[in-house]
Specification:
Low-confidence stretches: 1-37, 352-381
Mean pLDDT: 84
Number of domains: 5
Shape: elongated
CATH topology of the largest domain: Neuraminidase
Radius of gyration: 47 Å
Distance between the termini: 112 Å
Strand content: over 45%
Helix content: under 10%
Oligomer: single chain
């Protein structure tokens, strides 16, 4: 007949006394076609494994196929009454058993849910059992016999550790997930209660020198031929549970399993700092036993109440309210809680008589949040199972975030690394860093100091690997910017001015981080003196604009300017080449020879001018410090020519002819070697009009 064994979550599973899987009527499939006179006798599945068994007859041959999208796909394997596969993906699978007899074929289908995770535990202290999680219609399987207690699953989901009885006491052995022994971790003592560290490299366990001796906490590396070592501060303690950072153990004082259950302990659980051996009591956990710590450092533990009933309680490793979770199921006592890898579900055992009846996963909320009722949701998994551990097929990939300054001035800088994983403790994640194409090096979450690098563009890569081999890589580029920004001063545009203000302008650039602001300074020198100290106006020291104006300038004074840029990482550029502009002297500041006359008009520079038509007439300004001169005069169609002399030596001449009349015309001569003395303007033309409005004198 056609047998379909399927159960949809969240209906519970139950094991009848005969060992036959009992399904609710609602889950039964439609009746199969009557022409099938054989079928699958039993179907089972555990994490990644499916198995079918059936009765055979010598005259028939059999084959197995998996029905995928309605199409049978042949599967290899034994077909003589039993077929199994250890590489089945999680989820529902339909397998077809086809029998061939006398050239005719018939088939039978069986559907089973291969779970994503299982519970590992011991039954009656002598069998290592793999039980399917709620929602699967397949029964668990015996992995190994003659195993003591306290199995644990490695963070990479590939290895188990459990106690094994031998002639000298109890030893700890590593197993694969099918229950096959790999090698012994410890021998020669009474060792039990093994717990993998978050990174899987160390196992904490309880050791007794003799069966009746006091317990003590030890550790052993999972590498070959490692020597166990006693933990400082671990005397008279048991039930070690690692914290998420791998730096502490949560311990039970004494050993409640060996104590009189009618006398509740008053000792709290303690947090043992492995680096120092210091013990810190965990508030609210008096009488606590069998602690389990989630990847987010929530602590679940069994606690005996005043009426000597065991309940499961939850608190935070950092302290806070203790919430008791006590589902009322036929008055059962609850114990041996175990967090799943995600830290969201607890498996626990319950019993009327003190022997385990079965684990019950119960989803819980955060510490300090009490459920709306005591009927916490749970689902039965398998009878007689104790000392629980989760075995999960899949592992969520880790994640990483990386923050690094886009630009740095120094060769070293600090990156901020954050890593996370939905089903692994933080200490189980391996974090490595690489700069450019160099070798990967160990680094750590948090602030990480990047080693010194040469100036230029660099790439920082961070890779995080979880115990199962899942990885995440993130990269960021940054620039070691030690190049100074450059700036070009564009103004003052003219070496001489008649205005009462001087505009200053510039352009700047930076290869790396970019210019963040500019600084401008100025100084001045009178026509007959030297420059004073540089002036740094407060409002000019963090300019984002590229121009500024100096107001309040006065005649007979030259003003010089420099600008520099500062980039975003603090590199300050050099001060630019200075540019200067001198305010011209008024004509009234000049001494006159015979033949000149003064005139007044608003169109003249500062309202006056001095004019003549007599050849050889001159104007003078003694005591000048000069390397450049400008003549301020009227230009017109009948205007003549003036010569410019310093200490009697000619430095040039100015032809004032113009087709149209131009007032306040500034004509600058080319620069010449710096000198001091008298500047003279001398009329060189005869009978031509010469009208002088001022004289520009600059020492730059």
């Amino acid at each position: 007949m056609n047998i379909v064994a399927r159960l949809a979550a969240p209906l519970a599973l139950a094991m009848a006394a005969s060992g036959v899987l009992v399904l609710p009527a609602a889950a039964a499939p439609p009746p199969p076609p009557e022409e099938f006179h054989f079928g699958v006798a039993a179907v089972s599945a555990t994490r990644g494994r499916a198995e079918l068994t059936w009765k055979t007859d010598p005259a028939s041959s059999y084959s197995i196929a998996e029905v995928v999208g309605g199409t049978p796909v042949a599967r290899a394997g034994m077909t003589t009454g039993q077929w199994s596969s250890n590489n089945e993906a999680p989820g529902w699978h339909t397998y077809r058993l086809t029998r061939t007899l006398n050239g005719e074929t018939s088939y039978s289908d069986a559907t089973v849910l291969v779970p994503t995770r299982s519970l590992i535990g011991t039954r009656f202290g002598s069998y290592l059992i793999s039980a399917t999680a709620p929602g699967s219609n397949a029964m668990g399987a015996t992995l190994s016999q003659d195993v003591g207690d306290s199995p644990d699953v490695s963070p990479d989901r590939r290895t188990l550790v459990a106690q094994v009885r031998d002639t000298t006491g109890t030893s700890l052995w590593l197993f694969d997930t099918e229950g096959k022994r790999i090698r012994a971790l410890t021998q020669g003592s009474w060792d039990s209660q093994a717990a993998f560290s978050p990174d899987g490299r160390t196992v904490a366990f309880v050791r007794r020198d003799t069966y009746d001796a006091a317990p003590a906490v030890w550790t052993v590396s999972t590498t070959a031929n490692a020597v166990p070592a006693a933990v400082t501060g671990g005397a008279n303690a048991s039930s070690p549970a690692w914290t998420a950072d791998g730096k502490n153990l949560v311990l039970e004082i004494g050993d409640a399993d060996r104590a009189d259950p009618s006398v509740p302990s008053t000792d709290p659980l303690v947090v043992l700092r492995l680096s120092t051996g210091a013990r810190t009591p965990l508030p609210g956990t008096e009488g606590g036993r069998d602690p389990s710590v989630s990847r987010t450092d929530r602590v679940a533990f069994a606690q005996r109440t005043a009426d000597l009933r065991l309940v499961v309680a939850v608190t935070d490793l950092s302290g806070g309210p203790v919430v008791q979770w006590s589902p009322q199921v036929q008055g059962q006592g609850w114990g041996s809680p175990e967090w799943d890898p995600q830290g969201t579900t607890l498996a626990m055992s319950f019993s009327n008589t003190g022997s385990g009846v079965g684990p019950h996963p119960a989803t819980v909320t955060g510490p300090g949040q009490q459920p709306s009722s005591w009927s916490v949701p749970y689902a039965h998994v398998q009878s007689g199972l104790q000392e629980l551990a989760w075995l999960q097929t899949t592992s969520a990939a880790p994640t990483a975030t990386l923050t690094v300054p886009a630009f740095t001035q120094t060769a070293t800088t600090t990156a901020t690394i954050a890593v996370a994983d939905a089903d692994d403790a933080i200490a189980g994640l391996q974090v490595t860093c690489r700069i450019d194409s160099a070798a990967w090096m160990p680094c750590a979450p948090g602030a990480w100091a990047i080693p010194a690098q040469k100036p230029g563009t660099h790439v920082l890569s961070v890779k995080v690997t979880d115990p199962a081999g899942g990885t995440a890589t993130v990269t960021r580029q940054w620039v070691v910017d030690q190049l100074i920004p450059s700036v070009t001063l564009r103004g003052p545009a003219q070496p001489f001015t008649l205005a009462s203000s001087v505009p200053v302008s510039w352009t700047g650039s930076d290869w790396g981080s970019g210019v963040t602001y500019y600084q401008v300074r100025w100084n001045k020198a009178a026509y007959n003196g030297g420059f004073g100290p540089w002036q740094y106006p407060a409002g000019w020291q963090k300019l984002t604009a590229t121009s500024v104006t100096l107001t309040g300038v006065v005649p007979a004074v030259g003003y010089c300017f420099q600008v520099r840029a500062v980039d975003k990482v603090g590199n300050a550029g050099a001060w630019s080449t200075q540019k200067c502009s001198a305010v011209a002297l008024d004509d009234r500041s000049l001494g006159t020879s015979a033949g000149w006359s003064r005139t007044v008009w608003s169109l003249f520079y500062r309202g006056t001018a001095t004019e003549t038509t007599k050849a050889g007439s001159y104007l003078t300004r003694p005591g000048s410090a000069v390397s450049r001169v400008a003549v301020v005069a009227t230009r017109c169609p009948t205007c003549g020519t003036v010569g410019v002399y310093v200490n009697g030596a000619s430095v040039g001449s100015v032809n004032l002819y113009s087709a149209t009349t131009v007032r306040q015309s500034v004509v600058a001569l080319p620069p010449f070697a710096y000198r001091t003395g008298t500047v003279m303007l001398k009329v060189l033309s005869t009978g031509k009009f010469v009208q002088v409005d001022g004289l520009g004198i600059s020492r730059t």
